[in-house]
Design a protein that fits this description.
- The structure is a homodimer of 310-residue chains.
- By secondary structure, the first copy, chain A, is α/β, with parallel strands linked by helices.
- Chain A contains 10 helices and 18 strands.
- Chain A has 2 domains: 257 residues, Ribonuclease Z/Hydroxyacylglutathione hydrolase-like (Metallo-beta-lactamase, Chain A, 4-Layer Sandwich); 39 residues, no CATH class.
- In chain A, strand 11 and strand 12 form a beta hairpin.
- The interface between A and B is medium-sized, with 31 and 31 residues.
C-alpha cells in the first residue's frame, strides 16, 4: 500500500554533472506514474531500481526541453523491452505534434501505442482516475502553457463499527448509508451520526507537483493540505526579480506556498545551475516552512499508510 | 597539438546505469568534433570536462535513437549558453526532418542555426575539411543507412634539410617542389630525391569510427593503417548469429577488422546490455588483436604528436 515519491531529476534548464533534468515517479500501490520526462529519465528510472515496464501513465507539465526530452529514449526503450499496452501521456496540446513527429521518425516496429491526452484546465479538473486514485490538473503560471498535477487517493468507503450494528440495530440500507460517509436519518426522526457508528479505514494520501511556476494566489488553495508538495525553487530568496522575469519561484515563494496551503511536507527542486551547492536554499525555506526537504536524485519520500483502529 | 578521443558512451540500444548511449568527442588541436549523439551526451560532455560551446561540428552515423536522442538537449543547451555560430551536423538524409521537427517545436529563441549536411557515400568520400584535417565518410552495413567517419590530419608540407640547400644548390622553385613532397627533376637529367633533401615535420594522425555495422570485406581497406580505430563490438564471439541478424559485430569480427587494417590501436564499444561485465570481451579481442582496449565512459585516448628530427 505504498505511496512513494522518487526524485529522478532536480536540475533546471541546464543540467549539471550531478543534477538531471526534471522527472519524478510517484509509486501508488505499485502503479508507477511518471511526472515530467527530462533527458536521461530512462537511466534515472533504472538507477532508482524502478521498472521501466511498470510505468503506467505519464504526466508532462509543459513542453520545455528540460521536462520533455527524455520521452524519446523512454518510449524507444519501452518498445525494445516488449511493451504492448498503450501508454497514456497527459500533456499540453502541443505535445501532439511532438509525439507524431517522433513516431514518424522513430516509431517503426513499435508494438504499443503512445496515446496523447490533451490537458487543458483553468482551475483544478480531474483528468485521470483509477479505483483508488484520482489525478487533477491545474494551471500554473509559466512562460508557456503549464500544468501542475494533484494525485490523491479517493476517500475510502467507511467501516461500520461492529458494536454499532447491534447497538443501533442497523439494517443493510443503513449500513450502506454509513459506509458512504453519511448520517442515518430514521423515519422516527432519530439521527445516527456517521462519526458515532463508522470510521475511515485509512487516511487517503495526496501529492501535488507544482513546477515550473511563478507564485500566484490561487495555488495554495488548490493544493491545500496535501501530504507532500513538490514546488520548484529555482532561485534563492534574493533572486526574486530574476525569478519574476523567468516565471519561476524563489525558495521563499515555494515555502510560502507550502505554508499557506498547510501541507505536511515540502520537497524542493529545479535548482538553478548557478548554484552547485544549494544547502543554503534549505535554510531559507525552513525559516518559512520547517518541514522542507531539498529533493535530490535518488531520494525516495514515502507517505506512510495510516490505518485507523476501529 | 592534441589529437584525443573522449569516450562518452559505450551502451548499445539499451543504456544501463553505467553505460550511456553512443557518443565520442575527438579533440583535434582544440577543435571538438562530436561523433554520434546518444541521450545524455550534454551531461557526459560536462563530466569529461569538455566545453559544450567548443563543439565545432557533429557527425551522426545513423538515425537509431541510441545515436541521436541527445541532440535535442545538446542543441537547446547550446542555445541557452549563448551560441551564435552555425552548428554543422553531418548525418544521413532523414536527419533533415528530425532537425526541422525539433526546431519547429523547440527552436524558439535559438540564436544559432543548426545546419544539416546530408551524408551520402558508396565508398569513402571527403565531406569536411579544415586547414589541417579532413573527414571522410564511408558506408557501413547496418539495418538502416549508416556511415562511418575517418578523421585524418592532412599530410603536412615537408621541411627541406638546411644542409641540402647548400649541398644541392637548391633554388626557390626546387624548394617548393620538395616541400610538396615531390622529387626535383633538373634539366640536366639529375634527380634530387625528396627523401634525400626533405622530411615530414610530423606524422599525420588518424582515427576511424566504425559503428554500427556488420563486418564486410571492404571495411578494413577503408580504414587501413589508422592510428586508432573505434569498432563496435556489440556481442561476444559466440553470439555471431545474433550479430548477423541485427547487423552488428562480435568481438572477433571487430578485432579481425583491426588486424586486417593494420591499425595501431583498437577501441571497442556499443556493448550489449546482456553483459554487465564485459571484461571477457577484451580477452576475446586480444587473442586476435593485442592492441585492443575496451572503451569506457570517461576514457581519453591520446594519439601523440610525433615530430620528426631534421
Amino acid at each position: 500500500m505504498n505511496f512513494t515519491l522518487n526524485i529522478l531529476g532536480t536540475a533546471s534548464a541546464l543540467p549539471t554533472v550531478n543534477r538531471y533534468p526534471s522527472a519524478q515517479v510517484l509509486d501508488v500501490r505499485g502503479r508507477l506514474f511518471l511526472i515530467d520526462c527530462g533527458e536521461g529519465v530512462q537511466m534515472q528510472i533504472r538507477r532508482q531500481r524502478l521498472s521501466i515496464l511498470k510505468i503506467d501513465t505519464i504526466f508532462i507539465t509543459h513542453l520545455h526541453g528540460d521536462h520533455t526530452f527524455g520521452i524519446y529514449g523512454l518510449l524507444s526503450t519501452m518498445s525494445m523491452l516488449g511493451r504492448t499496452a498503450p501508454l497514456h501521456i497527459y500533456a499540453p496540446e502541443a505535445f501532439g505534434k511532438i509525439l507524431s513527429d517522433f513516431m514518424a521518425s522513430f516509431g517503426d516496429g513499435f508494438r504499443f501505442e503512445p496515446v496523447h491526452h490533451t490537458v487543458s484546465a483553468r482551475e483544478p479538473v480531474k483528468i485521470f482516475e483509477t479505483r483508488s486514485l484520482e489525478v487533477l490538473a491545474f494551471p500554473l503560471r509559466h512562460r508557456i502553457e503549464t500544468y501542475g498535477y494533484l494525485f490523491r487517493e479517493k476517500t475510502p468507503m467507511q467501516n461500520v463499527r461492529k458494536d454499532a450494528i447491534a447497538r443501533f440495530g442497523l439494517g443493510l440500507a443503513e449500513i450502506g448509508t454509513l459506509k458512504r460517509g453519511e448520517d442515518v436519518h430514521r423515519e422516527d426522526g432519530t439521527v445516527i451520526l456517521n462519526s458515532e457508528a463508522a470510521y475511515k479505514p485509512y487516511e487517503p494520501r495526496s501529492f501535488a507537483y507544482c513546477g515550473d511556476t511563478a507564485p500566484f494566489p490561487e495555488l495554495s488553495g488548490w493544493v491545500k493540505g496535501v501530504d507532500l508538495l513538490y514546488h520548484e525553487a529555482t532561485f534563492p530568496r534574493e533572486y526574486e526579480s530574476l525569478a519574476r522575469a523567468t516565471f519561476h519561484s524563489t525558495t521563499l515563494q515555494a515555502a510560502t506556498c507550502a505554508k499557506d496551503a498547510g501541507v505536511r511536507k515540502l520537497v524542493a527542486g529545479h535548482y538553478s545551475s548557478r548554484f552547485p551547492d544549494i544547502s543554503f536554499y534549505l535554510d531559507e525555506m525552513k525559516e518559512i516552512f520547517p518541514e522542507t526537504v531539498l529533493g535530490k536524485e535518488g531520494m525516495k519520500i514515502e507517505i506512510p499508510f495510516v490505518s485507523n483502529p476501529c
